[in-house]
Amino acid sequence: SYSVSMKFSIAVMPGDGIGNEVVPEGLKVLKRAIEVSGEPVELELTDYKVGAQRYHETGETLTDEELESLREHDAIFFGACGDPSVPSGVLERGVILKMRFGLGHAVNLRPSKLFAGVTSPLAEPGKIDFVVVREGTEGSYTGSGGSVRTDTPQEVATEVSVNTWYGVERAVRDAFARAQARNKKLTYVHKHNVMVHAGHLWRRVVEKVGQEFPEVAVNYEHTDACTIYMVTNPERYDVIVTDNLFGDILTDLAAAVTGGIGLAASGNLNVEGTAPSLFEPIHGSAPDIAGQQIADPTASILSGALMASHLGLETVAKAIETAVEADLAERDGTKRSTAEVGDAIAARLG
Amino acid sequence: SYSVSMKFSIAVMPGDGIGNEVVPEGLKVLKRAIEVSGEPVELELTDYKVGAQRYHETGETLTDEELESLREHDAIFFGACGDPSVPSGVLERGVILKMRFGLGHAVNLRPSKLFAGVTSPLAEPGKIDFVVVREGTEGSYTGSGGSVRTDTPQEVATEVSVNTWYGVERAVRDAFARAQARNKKLTYVHKHNVMVHAGHLWRRVVEKVGQEFPEVAVNYEHTDACTIYMVTNPERYDVIVTDNLFGDILTDLAAAVTGGIGLAASGNLNVEGTAPSLFEPIHGSAPDIAGQQIADPTASILSGALMASHLGLETVAKAIETAVEADLAERDGTKRSTAEVGDAIAARLG
Ligand SMILES: CC(C)[C@H](C(=O)O)[C@@H](O)C(=O)O
Ligand SMILES: CC(C)[C@H](C(=O)O)[C@@H](O)C(=O)O
């Protein structure tokens, strides 16, 4: 059945620093793409204020009530969080990870593509077009661990990576399905020669789930080896699946080889559809360049495309990507403000 | 007091795969460099057989008795260990990590230098010349952790990163001393916004030890950010200090940007001098190319130079480095066998 008008409720959370400059451009382009598509889609935007300023004023990061109210939305459009004035970890744990864990963002999806016209720091980049499926809710990100005899020469601090069959399977299954729909190649990355407990769980899950996807060719790489191939032979990858920490590291590296984190979008996906997914640039708040309208909003704009696709608006998503590709292909080093880049991409939508 | 003749006792452990091809070249060049130097130095070599073949024949990796007898030597010259026929982790834990942990190899030292004439996969490599001081005896490498409800949908596997003030301080102090002797820049790399327990220990140790090195400028980078700079701006680094797992990943990446792991040497250093240090290429056993005399022995040869320097034979070390640099500068793509590369470098010593 087809409804005459679709209304999507989006939580908008610009956060800190350049988050406040790029998110408006992401929304500008998304709105324009919907308008031009002629689809009967309405966006209802609700602002959420999180980040350093609020933390300093109120001591709050993201309250439990807000986390609950976020569940009412169809998706979350996020900017960035973090500021040197706030102790390391407070906003990360209190906002970003609180949402990823609380809303069951099992898959942190990070496409890596070298667009035409984009300069890679690699000497001879081939065709780079892969996606990383990073597990999003466990591993070294749980905060599990602690320290004893703190601040003495006898201090011991532990950090526990927690891995469950349930959590790993959610990510691995998603990755297999993506590989099946793409070029049928899945690389799983771990360090199972050293981290034997978690590594062997990952291996057994990949073997088990793989039986359901006989067409997908699977190979394994150690994380350290993967970083080498990422710079010498990135065209080998189609879909990569890996744990939370390795995924964090590898996707920043992947962004670097495909022209920089100014272009890298991501989706934190609740794969069961039991809570809204979140879309964000993989870059951070970049306090050093914030407030100057010099940040590149492309990653936020592409995050808007990922969100559109997630909401089923494939035409809208495709139109945004096409407009971004066209803009990238013609960048010639001329300085444009953050808003000018957004305007230019919006204008290409017709 | 000066002794007329110095005898160094070296444990030689080629291991698996190309380890058996590169170690003889490393020794060939080292012996020649000593000969040419005119220094009254004698090497006494003792072979140790470890690796896949022995494991299959006897079930043994490296026995406790052998670990004890290794202590009698002045240094260990290692090749590589690992073979697909042996379950992942067995040789790593049973040989490599057994030595690193048992002999207190607090510092895993990994120089990264882009030599003249070497092609980097980077488009515009600047001057790359830094060393990574990777903590070598703890972090995610302890094997601590386990799994419950193994092989069921309710499985939970943990991997515990263990960090002690004692262990971190050993590595950090070594890194500060190296920075002091080099360009007085130390970058410490962690992920303390997420791994708060271990991260904060690292931060406090760096702050405390840093007070003894007021001339060294210290900065912090998240591991993910560091991988970006490693490809976009590697000339920023002088000395990097980081934990065992991050160091594993970053040094393979560093090797890639400086021309490949065929060139990257390392030393596993007992900084207190209570047990012998170990020198090895950072590459593995490469079973796919083993036995064909096509492996590049340069990393083993440079590991020989690191060993010479560690034994106080600075002239010998410098001579090897110079010979390697000269060979690298003139490589023109002509195929040479592993032994031919060793011969060519040995010949340059005069
Ligand atoms: C800000 C930080 C908590 C986050 C992470 O480590 O996941 C960021 O690096 C990312 O990749 O989204
Ligand atoms: C073989 C493996 C145990 C080892 C490590 O992870 O340390 C290797 O990758 C290295 O870097 O020396």
Q: What ranges of chain A have pLDDT less than 50 throughout 5 or more consecutive residues?
A: none
Largest Cβ-defined interface: A-B, 68 and 69 residues
By CATH, the topology of the largest domain in chain A is Isopropylmalate Dehydrogenase
Instruction: Describe the main β-sheet of chain A briefly.
Output: 10 strands, mixed
Principal-axis shape of chain A equals globular
How many individual β-strands of chain A?
12
Number of helices of chain A: 11
Structural class of chain A: alpha/beta
User: What is the CATH first-level class name of the largest domain in chain A?
Assistant: Alpha Beta
In the residues of chain A, how many domains can be counted?
A: 2
Q: What's the SSE pattern of chain A?
A: EHEHHEHEEEEHEHEHEHEEHHH
Q: Any idea what the CATH superfamily of the largest domain in chain A is called?
A: Isopropylmalate Dehydrogenase
The ligands bound in this entry are: 3-isopropylmalic acid
Radius of gyration of chain A, taken over Cα atoms and rounded to an integer in Å? 20 Å
Q: Major sheet of chain A: order of its strands?
A: 2-1-3-12-11-4-5-10-8-9
Q: Helix fraction of chain A? A: 40-55%
Mean pLDDT of chain A: 97
What is the terminal-to-terminal distance of chain A?
30 Å
How much of the residues of chain A is beta strand, in percent?
Answer: 15-25%
Keywords (chains A, B): Manganese, Metal-binding, NAD, Oxidoreductase
Cofactor (chains A, B): Mn(2+); Mg(2+)
Domain Isopropylmalate dehydrogenase-like (chains A, B): 9-345
Protein name (chains A, B): 3-isopropylmalate dehydrogenase
